[in-house]
Amino acid sequence: MEASLEITLQMAIAVVAGISAQVIAAYLRVPSIVLLLFLGIILGSDGLGLLHPHLLGTGLEVIVSLATAIILFEGGLNLDLRELGRVSVSLQLLVTLGTLITLLGGSMAAHWLGEFPWNIAFLYASIVVVTGPTVVGPLLKQINVDRQVATLLEGEGVLIDPVGAILAFVVLDTIVNGDADPVNAIVGLLMRLGVGAAIGAVGGYLMSLVFKRASLLSFELKNLVVLAILWGLFSLAQTIRSESGVMTTVVAGAVFANSSVPEERLLRSFKGQLTILSVSVLFILLAADLSIASVFALGWGSVLTVLVLMFVVRPINILACTWNSNLNWRQKLFLSWVAPRGIVSASVASLFAILLTQHGINGGDAIKALVFLTIILTVVCQGLTAGGIAQLLQITSKDATGVVIVGCNPLSLLIARFFQEREESVVMIDTDPERCEKAAEQNIRVIASSALDTGVLEEAGLASMGTFLAMTSNGEVNFVLAQRAAEEFNPPRVLAVFPRDPQASNGGNQKTVNQAFVTELTIKAWNEYLNDGRVKLGTITLDAADFDSQQERIQEKIRTGVLLPLLLEREERLQVMPANHDWEIGDRIIYLLHDPRPNLLKRLSGASQSTPLAVEKLPELEEVALPTLAQLSTSEVSGS
């Protein structure tokens, strides 16, 4: 068989196997890297013998380098500087102090437990300093973890990759050249980081200019121009200073992503597809090149090395880097558990095995085997259990608190006050200065601008909020706003007041946008009721003994238009009431009841929180008499 045909078959098998693994992983809802690793090993020389990556020769190194550039660039695109600012101190410590802790802890474990010589132990530790963004990103999307934790893990994965890769090459240079001077090592590290960052910053700005000003180019051609520039920048950085290209790609992606580029979403989609293809092919090829015999030859000492890295070094790392942060113990525990290694570790280890052998230094194959053992254990153990642990610790995004409300009116102000009394973050958005002033008078944070501007939603912190509620007087606008919020920020709960069949309801995100309160709400009428004091404020807890009849009474009053369910309290969590929501025993419903008698409750939404609210008993429903909204959100006095 001709050599060219053999290489073609190798690449075709790798692509088919890689994409098949991605499809199966998506269907089974498991991390794709798990299937990629095992499928690569099965197809390799120790399995079915269909894949022989060594036939690619130096072409494998070229594929690894160019694919890694795409992967890290895509990671840089996903870096949100606003979100990173919230965890900037912890992130800086993870990339600096955390790198040092992992380097020292990993090398000591590899030396004392794995019985590696110190130079090889340090080289192993430098390789596994990185956490794989290509593993962390899909994993976080799958389990929908708390936004602050997700930002920290994603930022660590992207930023520590170039630092760790360059650190590994500095350690390798020290071993190969026999230069043990730490000053030279530090200078070499800083030079590579500096050269890479400078070229990446200029390149990222150049890419943004292409998208902004090259109006004659089609979207597809713009995407390819950016790809060409990316590979050109990577090669330039590698030529000027070896291994500085990895830093170049990350910085270029971050600069481009934060340059307010139009049609950026199209580039993200294109690069995301290339990243999936690159990860799939690389993992299949690198896993197929792994010798299973070399992994088993490591012995139990190497298994203990990886376990110490996971259960001792990582927790120490997180505690040291987040000790002064606002993260709670549950978030820190999750961060301590999730640190899977990925494609950068695998590619660097494979390359180092070749370089060490070329220089006549023993230990290359052992390092590669130990790194792949680390990848397998961290990915399988952490990847398969992260979702369950996040739910157990209650740090999934559905547990996120806080609300962003678009539209300042009496009804929305009332809802905002309930969340405010629970000490949840509340931000209101409106274009009317007078309405904004009323919200500000109640110590509610308000942004006087249009919520159609994505930047305004970012300023409101929607990315870390649990609820988005659009309740202006225009139902169609509310639905469009909710759609955009769901697409751009994907908060756990997206609700809007909109007509039953808006023209926009044909959009693909209809399922993620829930109607708020009831299916047909005349928001103008209920705001008038509030202004005129023609409402009663009440609560009812659904109990097992009277569950059906309670629901019937409530639904009857909703159908006649005299009762408006506002909020639902379930498992001590307050949320805006969705229309057509299935109620459960134990749910506590806070509602407004229309009473035509005037002056019963004067200008409820604009009143001070200390103003006494005299609410009459409702014989049909459980009712409370309250001096403040705070008491409504924390206590009940039954009345029948």
TrEMBL record:
Its main location: membrane. One of its GO terms (molecular function) is antiporter activity. GO terms for biological process: potassium ion transport; proton transmembrane transport. It comes from the Bacteria. The chain crosses the membrane at residues 12-42, 62-81, 93-114, 120-140, 152-172, 184-211, 223-240, 334-357, 369-393, 400-419. The keyword Hydrolase does not apply. It is found in: Cell membrane. Residues 12-387 form the Cation/H+ exchanger transmembrane domain. InterPro entries: Cation/H_exchanger_TM, Na+/solute_symporter_sf, NAD(P)-bd_dom_sf, RCK_N. GO terms for cellular component: plasma membrane. It is a multi-pass membrane protein. Keywords: Antiport, Cell membrane, Ion transport, Membrane, Transmembrane, Transmembrane helix, Transport. Residues 403-497 form the RCK N-terminal domain. This is Na+/H+ antiporter. It comes from Nostoc piscinale CENA21.
